[in-house]
Amino acid sequence: MTEQFEDVSRWPVSRYFREVVASQPDGRVLLLSAKINWCAGIAAAISLLFFPVSPHLAWVHVVLFLGMPLLGFIWFLRDMPSPTLTNFEHIWRQPWQRQISFWWQFIPAFLPWLVLVNSYVR
Prior knowledge:
Oligomer: single chain
Number of strands: 2
Structural class: mainly alpha
Shape: elongated
Number of domains: 1
Strand content: under 5%
Number of helices: 4
Order of helices and strands: EHHHEH
Largest sheet: 2 strands, antiparallel
Distance between the termini: 68 Å
């Protein structure tokens, strides 16, 4: 009997995030940090457009808040297998591989906050 194969490349983005990204520890960091950074980026953009709160806040902060989660997502996709006609299998990685992926998700998530604090300190 032949197995039923599912074309993972035809999954909607929401299902990919729910079933692949959220099942990995570094994927959960990616999703949480992306939500926080995108909310902060949108709030910073609205602040810059309508009522400037601080002279230290600039458009570079908005770009960092909105762009760094995309960099983290690219790194996450690099670690995941390419979507092909396969049965989806959970990926088992060694603990050191998960830790490296976690830090490669945490560093881009934390960088916009570090730049923002650095601009206030100067």
